[in-house]
Amino acid sequence: MREERLQKILAAAGVGSRRACEQMIVAGRVKVDGQTVTELGTKIDPDKAQIQVDGKSVQLPKRHQYIKLHKPRGVLSDIGGDTGGRETVADLLPPDSRRLFPVGRLDVHSEGLILMTDDGELAHKLTHPRFQHDKTYYVLVGERPSDSALEQLRRGVDLPDGRTAPAEVRVVRALPTDLKLSKGPTEGIWLEIVLREGKKRQIRHMTAAVGYPTLRLFRWAIGSLTLGQLKMREHMPLSAREVSSLRALTSLARPLPPENPPARPAVIGLRGSRLPTNDMPERPTGRAPERSPRRSSERPAPRPTGRALGKAKRK
Known about the structure:
By secondary structure, the chain is an alpha+beta fold. The chain has 7 helices and 17 strands. The chain has helices at 6-12, 18-26, 120-127, 147-155, 202-209, 240-249, 307-314; strands spanning 4-5, 30-32, 35-36, 43-44, 51-53, 56-58, 66-71, 101-103, 111-117, 135-141, 158-159, 162-163, 168-172, 189-195, 214-222, 225-226, 235-237. Strands 7, 8, 9, 10, 13, 14, 15, 16 and 17 form a 9-stranded mixed beta sheet that branches. Strands 3-2-5-6 form a 4-stranded antiparallel beta sheet, with no helix packed on it. A two-stranded antiparallel sheet has the order 1-4. The N and C termini lie far apart (77 Å). 30% of the residues are buried.
């Protein structure tokens, strides 16, 4: 295996996010072949080097694990640090699950899709703002926003930490039929908002800034992955085609099949589009199909050219 940056290897091994791994390196918590490494960007070959974090060996898993779950309101999506005894998304997973990390957090008052995985490279590609992958939300507000407010949300809203990027915003008459809402407010107007960045509590700040505070916020999709028919607090391993779809979206190589692939059929994507599958017919190679050689008796007589053509005309 070719050499990779140490923080990238640690993230791919499920130690933490890319940023968290960088902080571990700078803090002197990481050793390579028995030597403490504190310089970011150090490259190593994970197949040859021995890596330790806080004295524990780290190895890249042969197969990553991918689980989607329906986070209810009141549950923390941040599993790091002191949670004060409050329930987190990690508590919703089976007790025998390996250590997984959430891809894209939701605040404690929001609900919907959370992707849990130990595939640090995929998590980085899906969440880093520079990659600009779509995240689709349904947002309940008290009344229909004015056209000017909708246009402001689409163009970008000035917030204390800067102007938000352009977003797709529209009023919807009905939510996706697969979406299973838990108990809570439903009176008002639902907006579909598609973001390509992820500032803290961004949608709540955006809607409040234009005069229509968020009453309820529900994440439906991350890229091509949708929540589907999962009910509140339910979880489900991703199918091989869902994993391949996400990795294709992020331009990552096709992985080995995920552990414990579900037997259920693939989830239907937003607006009824089916997610890409791996059993599609092969693409054409660009070469013309070979034809069987024509027998000599079937070949047409050659057309006269040059002197032969002149003699034929004089005759």
